[in-house]
Amino acid sequence: MKSVKVIITGGKGDIAQAIANRLGKDAETHYIVKLPGKDELDVTDIEQVNAYFQSERPDILINNAGAILLEGIEKNNIEAHRHVIDVNLTGVFACTGAALQVNPKLKVVNIGSSAGTKVHGDWSSYCASKAAVIMATACWAEEGIDAICISPGRALTKMRKSMYPDENPATLMHPEDFAIIVHQAINGAYKAGINLDVNLSNVTSLIHE
Questions:
Q1: pLDDT tens digits, one per residue of 14-50
Q2: Hey, which of 58, 104, 147, 201 would disulfide with 140, CB 3.0 to 4.6 Å?
């Protein structure tokens, strides 16, 4: 059985945990999964990022760390918007670049968001940063990098519940189902450079493709 090292940023989140659990069930590949949280890998700290990947040297990088601010631009809370962009976009560049330095054959899976292609008032820094990740993924594929973006829609996560505590869970996608799609992507089910929008309405059909 071959061994493959996977780094999932934002490793304490529900999606990261679900992906790790899914990879652990693979009967053909032994995935060695690292799930660094912010305390271990702050994706906005470039020096820390470079040092981390010099040490860990992954075969697969899943850029999952994320941040959101529900606030309109008229508040002029630029530092808070900058933080969202730094985590969601600059951190993706930093981690991907650092990992490619140690492994030019790296496979990259960017966790985008359906918000990257949809308009949400008061979410501008989140939507804009996720849209940029979608475009960066396509550009990297043109450079010959094995990169794909998978964008979850509304999902049953702690972050979502903190934003919308009264939301009906039955209307949300389960992270475990989304993780199956990520696993399929790792196994080469989708063309490099694409953005795959995954939500409650299509996740079952994608799983059975």
A1: 999 999 999 999 989 999 999 999 999 999 999 999 9
A2: 147
Q: Which residue has the tokens 């985590």?
A: 87
The Cα 157–Cα 17 span in angstroms is 11
β-bridge partners, 149: 110, 195
Give the bridge partners for 63, in sequence order: 110
Put residue 193 in one of left, alpha, beta given phi > 0 → left and psi -120 to 50 → alpha.
left
**Which among 105, 19, 33 is positioned nearest to 64, based on CA atoms?**
19
Residue 53, CA distances (Å) to 60, 83, 90, 160, 203 in order: 12, 22, 16, 30, 32
Q: Is there a contact between 30 and 2 (Cβ–Cβ < 8 Å)?
A: yes
- Measured between its terminal Cα atoms, the distance across the chain in Å is 26
Domains along the chain with CATH numbers: 2-207 (3.40.50.720)
Q: Which residues contact 15 (CB under 8 A, 6 or more apart)?
A: 64, 111, 152, 155, 157, 175, 178, 179
Q: What is the tens place of the pLDDT at every residue in 103-134?
A: 999 999 999 999 999 999 999 999 999 999 99
